[in-house]
Design brief:
Largest sheet: 2 strands, antiparallel
Number of strands: 2
Number of helices: 3
Shape: elongated
Radius of gyration: 20 Å
Distance between the termini: 68 Å
Strand order of the largest sheet: 1-2
């Protein structure tokens, strides 16, 4: 049996189980966990998951105008 970690607000689980759980958690929940003092393997999973998600750039999506009077 592998080593287990006690993660606050998540429970006691193996590292592989936490990787799956972290992929299902919100970014806010992961950031809250990263502010706590957790073992290095857990912190690296959190940081990897947050890096995968990256920062999303917001803004408008520019779509071409589809009107009746198009120039062909």
């Amino acid at each position: 049996m592998g080593k287990t970690y006690d993660i606050p607000d998540v429970g006691i689980m193996k590292l592989s189980d936490f990787e799956y759980t972290a992929s299902r958690m919100s970014s806010t929940a992961l950031k809250n966990l990263s502010n706590q003092s957790l073992p290095d393997p857990i912190m690296s999973v959190i940081k990897d998951e947050l890096n995968k998600r990256g920062k999303k750039k917001g803004g408008l999506i520019v779509k071409p105008f589809k009107g009746r009077n198009r120039d062909i």
